[in-house]
Specification:
This protein has about 600 residues and is of the alpha+beta class. About 25% of the residues lie in helices and about 25% in strands. It is built from 19 helices and 22 strands. Strands 15-20-16-19-17-18 form a 6-stranded mixed β-sheet. A 4-stranded antiparallel β-sheet has the order 1-2-3-4. A 4-stranded mixed β-sheet has the order 5-14-13-12, with no helix packed on it. The longest helix has 17 residues. The two termini are about 25 Å apart.
Length: about 600
């Protein structure tokens, strides 16, 4: 109000303040009213402005006209302005008090059988579910299976499905649904890039993946609520693999309804899909059929590409915001009001440069090590990540079993790196074939850290690296076929076991081995670790395997993950696990 008065005083003739002060509107709403007059040309004019605040929003109503008209209509003007009521906002037709509103870019797919990136997984975990799950502390807990037994030396699992577990359409989930879901995921025509790695321990899965069988021989239906699973050897991490989306139950009738069935998913999770407008909006609503603890949150609204998350958070458009690297210093400053809403969550993740070990010059381990030793990670993290993330010397992140805090990795040593290239089959930098770095992006605008990496190799090795971009939305689905000599990528734990990092990503027989790394000694070590029953011995095996990877220069680990989140105080029990998965079914909203 003061700003308005000052602005008018400075720009009009014969300004006169008639009145100002707080007024009461209906429903207990308070407003602030200003009335004044001035000379508009040679005509006397009057105005009344009513201000009402709601959170960070300011609503104003202005009535303005020549004085004679204003005075003759004062009763009507007062009635109109006094009739203002503040109703609960209902963006997208959903009461704001019942909806957790988030920013996101949206999933690539809602098909659990083919999804392989964390963005899609976040949605799939709300809509679908499996036999077992992780709680907020990554403890394995029952889900659709209320219990299970393990026999035959750890190779036979019998799962007993809970009574009352239903799909969203009300049909009860049966053991046959899991048999169908797993066999469907394993069949070549489904195109899953994850079935072999996450279901491959089950006897008979490999035969289906390779097209030599249509049924998984290691699955046995005891009755409608009892499923027996045989695996090829006792493995401590087998149950954890069943928390991955490819092991979730899908409804056969839903799948067979059409190729885009997953845009109308009939899942079993705590939420069901309500609406999906590509690149604009995705909403979930509570499923009344959910078999677990009652879900208190009515809706989840995802504003897809809705703006800059931290700004949307500040204006109250979203309830939770991931803080970008550029804003971490601002939100960690205790003098900034946003710091009171800040939550930090260490991630079981690593970001790294992957090297295509089959393409020259990286078919030579000396060249691979040279490129790793030419990167100043501390400088990179300080300048590009604002010092917000911990440096990665190894590949297994802190908090993951098997992580070695004393692991040193390859040092930053440009002189030694140049010497390694001189000792390689290529002689020196001038003898290296062209090198292309594949990354995600559009329009030729490089991310800061890719530009910094290219500069490091140019400055420290005298090597020019060309950058090629792929569409960000499909990057992780295309990289296997589209990769060049190097590419940037990241990995976040699907389950808290080093097997998920080392075996899944680098065993020569793994479909997720995008580096095409093949080392018989390394493979043999991983294969022994799979069935090692002594946990300490198994962890030492994985630490040995990690050392082999780093020494062989198969990848350049850069930093480990850490989430910086702003959470509105009205949001209670919002938890994001170290896997990066939000447990939305336990969230409650405090209604003003």
């Amino acid at each position: 109000a003061a700003e308005t008065i000052n602005a008018f005083q400075e720009t009009v003739k014969e300004f006169a303040l008639i009145s100002q002060g707080e007024i009461a509107l209906g429903d207990g709403v308070k407003g602030y009213e200003v009335e004044f007059s001035w000379l508009s040309g040679n005509t006397p004019a009057m105005a009344k402005i009513l201000y009402v605040m709601r959170g960070t929003q300011v609503i104003d109503i202005t009535a303005m006209s020549r004085t004679s008209l204003f005075e003759s209509n004062r009763d009507v003007i007062d009635k109109i302005m006094g009739s203002l009521r503040l109703e609960e906002p209902q963006p997208f037709g959903i009461p704001r008090s019942q909806a957790l509103t988030l920013y996101d870019i949206g999933p690539q797919t809602l098909d659990p059988g083919v999804s392989r990136e964390s963005t899609s997984h976040r949605y799939i975990a709300q809509i679908f579910s499996g036999l077992v799950a992780f709680d907020k502390d990554l403890n394995l807990v029952p889900d659709i299976a209320e219990r299970w037994t393990v026999e035959n030396g750890g190779t036979t699992y019998t799962f007993y499905l809970r009574q009352g577990a239903r799909f969203h359409d009300g049909r009860e989930v049966t053991a046959l649904d899991f048999k169908y879901s797993w066999e469907r995921a394993a069949k070549p025509e489904t195109g899953s890039q994850t079935a072999k790695d996450y279901l491959g321990d089950i006897v008979g899965v490999s035969e289906v993946v390779e097209g030599r069988a249509t049924e998984i021989s290691g699955l046995r239906i005891i009755d409608s609520r009892t499923l027996q699973v045989s695996i090829d050897a006792p493995k401590a991490y087998f149950l954890s693999k069943l928390t991955y989306p490819v092991a979730f139950a899908v409804d056969r009738a839903n799948v067979e309804s059409g190729g885009d069935w997953w845009r109308r998913p009939n899942g079993t999770g705590p939420f069901k899909l309500r609406e999906w407008q590509q690149d604009e909006l995705l909403t979930l609503e509570r499923s009344p059929q959910y078999y677990g603890q009652p879900v208190k949150l009515g809706y989840v609204v995802y504003r897809l590409f809705g703006g800059v998350p931290i700004r949307m958070y500040e204006t109250g458009e979203i309830d939770v915001a991931e803080v970008s690297t550029n804003d971490t210093r601002r939100v960690t400053d205790e003098t900034n009001p946003l710091s009171k809403d800040l939550h930090t969550v260490p991630q079981l993740s690593v970001y790294y440069v992957a090297i295509n070990t089959t393409r020259p010059p990286f078919d030579d381990a000396l060249v691979r090590r040279a490129f790793a030793m030419a990167v100043d990670k501390d400088k990179l993290i300080r300048l590009v990540q604002q010092g917000a993330l911990p440096r990665a010397d190894g590949f297994l992140p802190p908090g993951l079993p098997g992580h070695d805090p004393d692991f040193l990795g390859l040092p930053f040593d440009p002189e030694a790196a140049v010497k390694l290239i001189s000792q390689s089959q290529y002689g020196d930098a001038s003898g290296l074939p062209p090198i292309t770095f594949t990354t995600s992006g559009r329009g030729g605008e490089l991310s800061d850290f890719v530009g910094a990496l290219v500069q490091e190799w140019r400055q420290n090795l005298g090597v020019e690296v060309v950058v090629r971009q792929l569409e960000p939305e499909t990057y992780f689905y295309l990289i296997k076929e589209e990769k060049d000599e190097m590419f940037d990528t990241g990995w976040i734990a699907d389950y808290p076991d080093p097997q998920n990092f080392l075996d899944v990503l680098f065993h020569s027989d793994s479909k997720a081995n995008d580096s095409s790394y093949s080392n018989p000694e390394f493979d043999a070590l991983l294969e022994r670790a799979r069935t090692e029953q002594d946990e300490d011995t198994r962890m030492k095996m994985y630490q040995q395997a990690e050392g082999m990877l780093i020494h062989d220069g198969v990848m350049i680990p850069l930093w480990f993950g850490k989430d910086y989140l702003l959470v509105n105080p009205r949001v209670r029990d919002y938890v994001r696990t170290p896997q990066g998965t939000p447990l939305l079914k336990q969230v409650t909203l405090q209604v003003p």
